[in-house]
Design a protein that fits this description.
By secondary structure, the chain is of the alpha+beta class. The protein is built from 9 helices and 6 strands. The strands form 2 sheets. It has a 4-stranded antiparallel sheet. A two-stranded antiparallel ribbon has the order 1-2. Helix 2 packs antiparallel against helix 3 and helix 4 packs across helix 5. The chain starts with a strand and ends in a 13-residue tail after the last helix.
């Protein structure tokens, strides 16, 4: 039998053991079919919080591990570790798939991913999608990983991961692989690799990150409608040149 209780400011399922392992989506469908609409709404509103603990744990853990790599072996090894993992199955799979899609479909899929990434001040997947003449922009205020960790987590009552008790690290020098910036959280460097690798494979990034050093500001991902419209600065900040084939002159 389904039982709901208040736990740490949210709803927790405390069902009988035979029901406890049933997916909440299936429980919601059953409640709707049986006319228990208020119960279904309550479950739906709290569904995203079911994976908050695991989601946030892994984000914090990755940044902690990258920090320890940088402090023990030098921050060049942070780049090496990120590259070694992202250039194989992870980013390569995205690059191959996105190249077959329209930019509009890329934006749609990425927005879905960012909703699941618990973006927004309520950590419920709130993002804003904008369109300009030359590009689409996904605005995350904050994103569910780097942004949340940099700001701190008001839902959990925990502080910024840049200070105690976490003291997670950022680039101590400006590197070409950190957009030519210092003080980029080691976790956020993977977004620079998301640009570097597609440039190396196909000449142009799939999207570019508008990283703001002020963690109170939102993070933006820009998807340009054609590679020719991407400003050359998005290559030069990574120590590269915009290929002539993408020259919009």
């Amino acid at each position: 039998m389904l039982r709901l209780s208040d736990f740490a400011g949210r709803v927790l399922r405390e069902d009988d053991l035979d029901d406890l392992g049933r997916p909440t989506g299936a429980v919601i469908e059953e409640a709707i079919d049986e006319g228990r609409t208020e119960e279904a709404k309550t479950l739906a509103r709290n569904l995203i919080h079911e994976w908050k603990g695991l989601h946030d744990l892994y984000c914090d853990w990755v940044w902690d591990m990258l920090t320890r790599i940088g402090r023990k072996f030098g921050e060049g090894e942070v780049y090496a570790m990120l590259r070694a993992t992202q250039e194989t199955w992870m980013m390569k799979r995205t690059w191959k798939g996105f190249r077959k899609m329209s930019v509009e479909r890329q934006v749609t899929l990425t927005t879905e991913m960012m909703r699941a990434h618990r973006c927004g001040p309520r950590q419920e997947g709130d993002v804003e999608v904008l369109e300009d003449a030359d590009r689409y922009t996904i605005v995350m205020d904050p994103c569910g990983s780097g942004g949340r960790m940099r700001r701190g987590d008001p839902m959990d009552g925990t502080p910024s991961r840049l200070g105690p008790p976490y003291n997670f690290g950022s680039t101590q020098e400006a590197h070409w692989w950190s957009w030519g910036r210092k003080d980029v959280p080691y976790y956020c460097v993977h977004c620079a690799l998301n640009e570097i690798l597609p440039i190396e494979w196909g000449g142009a990034p799939l999207w570019v990150t508008d990283f703001d050093p002020d963690h109170a500001k939102p993070c933006r991902w820009h998807f340009y409608k054609k590679p020719e419209l991407i400003p050359a600065e998005y290559w030069t900040r990574l120590g590269k040149e915009k290929p002539a084939q993408f020259d919009d002159a």
